[in-house]
Fold these 2 entries.
Entry 1:
Amino acid sequence: MITIANGIVLYGEELVAKNTNILIDDGKIIEISDSVKEGEIIDATGCIVCPSFLNAHTHIGDSIIADAAYGKSIEEIVKPPNGIKHLALEEASDDELKIAMKKSMGFMLQTGTSHFIDYREGGLDGVKLLKSIIAEDKIPINPIILGRDNSFFDEDPNIHQVKIAIRKLLKHCDGIAPSGFGEITDEVAEIIAIECRNKEKIASIHVAEYEKLQKDSIAISGKSEVERAINSGFNQLVHVVSPIANDLDLIAKADANIVLCPRSNAGFGNGISPLPEILGKGINPLIGTDNIMINSPNIFKELEFTLKIMRVYYKDYIAPKEILKMATSNIRYASSTINKLINKSMIKEGEEAQLFIAKNSSKDPYLSLINRTETKDITCLINRNNIIHF
Ligand SMILES: [Zn+2]
């Protein structure tokens, strides 16, 4: 048994700050109260105890070329199959990839992240490679891996082959994530979404990452990328920087969630998702750090950037707690399939212990985490039975 004592605990889905103790037994939170104090004591005096983070969008493979393509256009960098990143991934040996991915996962743990949704390149082999690193090195992190296959990207795709690739991938990973509508046909998109729904897995796609993509989509199909994604049945949409017309209403009504990646959008010069409007529609977005070649997978940096850039772009002050929820409890309001599949715990009795402890540096625990927490301030991360002291 372990007691985390005297911390400011961010309790439940609403992250209510209260001074209390947490008793953990065999990886589960079994009591939260002022009076409990049993077993090994982890002193959290002067610290915040926060649910560990879910980084809802990464491409961990491009850890191998961090900062290598600075200043190039988004198409030159990430458009499959010939973008700088894809060529680098093809050239890299498995050993090079392993070292780079392992380092990024270590960094994620150090910065409070216990879960990440990776948009893995390299087909089935790419999925297996990431899984093998985590298994071999017993890395105490929870990957949610979405695969893709080159057969999706043919101009005239062989539907039979696409279906075979999806079936094989879904035996080994948690869902499928093609790049975007610029690279696949609507028929392929629909097949991916249907197969994933049938298997209760994640079907995700990048949409409305910048205005031109939305215009191109309307010119080709008469519909926005968001509309095509919702109509196809995708349950997780990434970016939504440039929603148009009733895009946000469609998302709000669908059993789908969105992931925002403001640092990536800014890094590529694509614009900033309208978070105040998104929250106003009752949508509870998740947050991700996207390409590791563009950004470090540090959720604290993403949260601080998001809080401040929204003030610049939309002249709106967003409650810091709403920003923090994007990396923690908003998963509870995600698409039903995704919430069930990921099952990320909050700090409540009966839930699994998935939390970190960080030194408090201000009068407001939410702002302390968003504005002031450096990697050195995180003293401990607990993911079920794994306890990592930093
Ligand atoms: Zn991405």
Note: The domain at 2-51+345-389 is CATH 2.30.40.10 (Urease, subunit C; domain 1).
Entry 2:
Amino acid sequence: MAILEQPPTLNVSLPVTIRTARKEDLPRLEWYGQYAHFRNLFQRAYRDQQLGIRLMLVADCNSFPIGYIFILFMDDEGENRQAYLYSLRVMEMFHSRGIGTRLMNEAEERVATRGYNEVTIAAAKTNDVARRLYERLGYKVFTDDLGEWSYTDHLGKVRHVKEPCWLLHKTIAMR
Ligand SMILES: CC(C)(COP(=O)(O)OP(=O)(O)OC[C@H]1O[C@@H](n2cnc3c(N)ncnc32)[C@H](O)[C@@H]1OP(=O)(O)O)[C@@H](O)C(=O)NCCC(=O)NCCS
């Protein structure tokens, strides 16, 4: 009887750090072309980060951003200061290792430290994984949206997106 051989396995453990994005991350956020069409959005988010309007957090593994989340700080008039979390994404081969959750935790930490207490995030209606993640972290659906928006891609072509979504909300303690 043939003995089934186990292929040789090397277990690699690598640290992942959540940090603010740097200029040199911008081309890497495209993940070797997979998200080249978001180039202008990444660049605008980075410009806004320098102005203090947005913040881009990356999950850094070996100096490569294997995941990211962006924060938009809304108009800060009034008592409730709103922040919008968006573009949460983790490279597929690193899914289900807690990186998405850590990015969300760190985003909330940064929001609270800036003195913002109301956080909103959208999950596409077809995206059960994202909705589950947000609900596990205490977010509650408060409405839905057609999810219609447009952007200009890296080739100058206007792309229209229509992705019906749930909008979820959480109140966090200000620092
Ligand atoms: C949504 C997304 C960001 C989640 O990222 P992630 O790093 O896989 O998230 P987590 O690992 O923290 O959680 C995902 C699942 O893994 C589980 N998990 C977390 N750590 C784990 C571990 N160490 N071992 C096993 N499972 C684990 C979580 O419990 C969760 O399980 P569930 O789906 O049954 O609820 C990712 O799926 C993604 O990039 N999707 C494509 C882009 C996208 O949809 N973004 C959201 C836009 S709204």
Note: The two ends are 66 Å apart (CA to CA).
